[in-house]
Amino acid sequence: MQTYYPLFTAIPLAAAFLNLLLSKISMKVSDYIAFLVTGILAVMAVRMLFEAPFIYAVGNWRPPLGILLVSDGLSSLMLVIINVIGLLAVIFSMKYMTTYTAKPKYYSLFMLMIAGMNGVVITGDMFNLYVFLEIASIASYALVGFGTGKRELEASFKYLVLGGVASTAILFGIAFLYSITGTLNMPDLAQQLETIGMTRTVGFVVALFIMGFGLKASAVPFHAWLPDAHPSAPAPISAMLSGVLIKALGIYTIMRIMFNIIGQNELISAIIMFLGALSMVVGVLLAVGQSDFKRMLAYHSISQMGYVTIGVGLGLNPKIDPAVAALGLFGGLFHLVNHAVFKSCLFLCSGAFEYRTGTREKHEMGGLVRKMPVTSTTCSIASLSISGVPPFNGFWSKLIIILALIKAGYWIYGPIAVLVAFITLISFIRLQTGVMFGKLPEKFSGVKEAPFAMTLPLILLAILCLGIGIAYPWIDYGLLQAARDALLDKMAYMNYLIGG
Amino acid sequence: MILYFLSMVLLVMGLYCLVAKKNIVKKIIGIVIIEYSVNLFLVLVGYRSGGIAPILVKGMQAEELVQKGVDPLPQALVLTSIVIGLGTMALMVALCLRMYEKFKTFDMSKINTLKG
Amino acid sequence: MDRLEQEIRDTSKGMTPIVKTITRFAIGIIVIFGAYIILYGHLTPGGGFAGGVILASSYVLLTLAFGKDMALSKMGNTAASILDNSGALAFVVIGLLGFTGGYFFYNFLPKGEQFQLFSAGFIPLLNIAIGVKVTASLFAIFMALSIFGRFIYQAAEGEERESEE
Asked: What is the rounded distance in angstroms from the CA atom of residue A420 to the CA atom of residue A403?
């Protein structure tokens, strides 16, 4: 596997262009290409879990000269999330996207997005990270506006303007880092910054990065684009954006840079934890009043990402007990995985409902559990999961984060997290009663269950929700622990420079 | 130092253009100005007064290039960032045309189908 | 009088005969310069992107002077799309061929002698791939925006006229 590590970006990139070429001959071939490519990538990603950490020098240029690819616990974890959710989204798209035109272009943009996200996750070079981030972002701007209706176009333009500003902030940060260290290699940067220390320039760089990557992760002061962009996209893309993109481009990069390059710092930890708490509260309060199914889910994405952010922020604090910090970080990573699973399930469910009923308004639906039993059941499981009801997976990760917050002595943030979980539960109970139970409207009496290609990903994701939750006390979470240790061990990351 | 400051001034001008103007085309121009301010800053990072172009020509010793040449890496980065900026700009202009088709206006304050 | 002469004398399409005649002379030089920038990208400043932009600008000049039919007869939309995708695909494939040397993007061709045209391994090949891609995609973007834009303007103006009436 080590030799073929760059294929994670090369395969989807090549497939994106090959797909457009072959679609000139036959329109049907793009379905198979997309399925084949994401299938291969998912299998490769799962196999990566059994690899020890290693580095890969592109073109045999030894670091710090050439581009370095790094594989450790965290990148393996992110690769699995990206590619498995990507595969399920492609299976869902096969039927769902027949309502749109230009399917080959959709799959090509999808492949470009996957290539960009995989690239962000595997790279060990600062500028390379920026380039892949832009590939994924530009593909996602185009995908948000894919329907070319009024709402889609406006959402896409808003997303593009804010995303463009964020990219500029990130590039400014990279330029400042280069001007003070003279290198772009991430392990090398970590070494150089170790000797430079926290000067004012480094502080400014951190501020730029928190703004730029925070906007990509839609932490609250920078969240304005997400509630518009995510509902406007086609359902599988909403699932990819909410489930994967904001994590790979936002949270992953923040974690990688703050832990492995800048190093643990009390002030950064306080800022990130504050952003996380703000996201949790504001997101959930705005979500309660929404009548649009997908818009409500988008606000919940902001709120749930707040949990991840606060866990990550707790792990960044060097002043508290290291065991508690590690626990908080573990909870954050666990919630990241869980959120990817249940939020993509919920968005795909909303797509299945929309496919059959043609509406996204909650008050127009009702009683659909009798007509669409599979979709409704999976939607209920994911809803209970996101609300943190035991024994579903969301419960355990929220419990770990809250426990870590209380243990670390954050007596304000801990109860806030409990309260937010409670409001989330209320919000999702209202969703359940509005959509699945109650009286079936006259016009939906002919509604059928969604086709198999759409229910299969839902069932798999629901099984994951339930399986991770029930088996939690017995499973050895070596995967998450490897990711956590990769983040907390800055020395190991710096040693990648000399080929460790 | 004054040059770095000027690139920051350019950045602020672009941000002003982006925030204050209502016309979509002017907003696009604002984003492009911001991108160029970053590019200018990146080139300035690699600048060295009295430097030569970082290209080895026939009859030049490698040591001479190392001593006199400006840093080539930021220039490569700027080229990449210009290409990315081109892609973003093409997408923005296409979206802008599509929006004009749907809304019959370039005024952003009249385009408000989304709740906010 | 050959076909090109007729095109030049035809005042219904494009600009005046003066512009068309000068374009006719300038366009060959522009294309040669673009090709030079691409092919010598590994020796002098320039490379695939810069040369591709110059080549694409020659098509833009052709469109401005002679109208869109002339430019589309040189490179149609389908041809532009195919060239665009195959250029990008060629770039990735050359990168993948580096696996014959054991690494992604490994320079597997012989390096040759310094300052010669055939040197630097696969870098000229990459430059050509990028050049093709940039030429085709910039031309496609220009055509899409200009044709599509004009179409939209006409539609919008027509509607306004209707509403006025």
From this structure: 15
Please tell me whether the interface predicted TM-score (ipTM) of this complex is above 0.85.
yes
Q: Which residues of C40-72 are buried (b: 16+ CB within 10 A; e: fewer)?
A: bbbbeebbbbbbbbbbbbbbbbbbebbbbebbb
pLDDT digits (tens, 9 = 90+) for A331-364: 999 999 999 999 999 999 888 888 888 878 777 7
What does the pLDDT read at residue B114?
66
How many structural domains are present in chain B? 1
Strand, coil or helix: what is A17?
helix
Residue A104, preceding peptide bond in cis (omega within 30° of 0): no
* Contact yes or no for C115 and B58 at CB 8 A: yes
In a domain, B115, yes or no: no
CA distance A401 to C11: 75
Mutate to test the interface with C, among A4, A17, A24, A153 (most CBs of C within 10 A): A17
CA A76 to CA A74: how far, in whole Å? 5
**Cross-chain CB nearest to C103 (options A13, A20, A59):** A59
pTM (2 d.p.) = 0.92
Q: Judge whether B28 lies within some domain.
A: yes
pLDDT at C162 over 60: no
Report if residue B77 sits inside a domain. yes
Q: List the domain boundaries for chain C.
A: 3-164
Task: Reduce the DSSP state of residue A390 to 3 states and report it.
Answer: coil
Query: What band does A445 get if pLDDT is binned at 50, 70 and 90?
Result: confident
The distance of Cα A327 from the centroid of its chain, to the nearest Å, equals 21
What is the tens place of the pLDDT at every residue in C60-105? 888 888 877 777 777 777 888 888 888 888 888 888 888 887 788 8
Q: What is the pLDDT of residues B48-101, one digit of tens each?
A: 777 777 777 777 777 777 777 778 888 888 988 998 998 899 999 888 888 888
- Establish how many alpha carbons lie within 13 A of residue C39's alpha carbon, considering only the half-sphere containing its beta carbon: 9
pLDDT tops 60 at residue B19 = yes
Residues contacting C87, CB < 8 A, separation 6+ = C129, C130, C131, C132, C133, C134, C136
Out of C81, C88, C103, closest to residue A58 by CB:
C103
| Residue B60 maps to a domain | yes
Partner-chain contact A59 C81, CB within 8 Å? no
CB-CB neighbors (< 8 A) of C89 in chain A: 14, 17-18, 21
What do you get for the CA distance between the two ends of chain C, in Å?
A: 48
Looking at chain A, which residue has its C-alpha nearest residue C77? A24
Strand partners, A59: none
How far apart (Å, rounded) are the C-alpha atoms in residues C96 and C105?
6
Cis peptide before C124 (omega within 30 of 0): no
Q: Domain limits at B87?
A: 2-110
Please state, in angstroms and rounded to a whole number, the distance separating the CA atoms of residues A17 and C91: 11
Q: What is the CATH number of the domain that holds B18?
A: 1.10.287.3510
CA pair distance A39, A435, nearest whole angstrom: 33
Based on its alpha-carbon atoms, the radius of gyration of chain B, rounded to whole angstroms, reads: 20
Whether the pLDDT of residue C156 is over 90: the answer is no
Is C16's Cβ below 8 Å from some Cβ in A? no
Subunit contact B99:A158, Cβ cutoff 8 A: no
Identity of the residue in C44, C115, C152 whose CB atom sits nearest the CB atom of B100: C152
CA distance A135 to A290: 32
Q: Where are the domains of chain A?
A: 2-498
Sign of CA dihedral A82, A332, A163, A226: positive
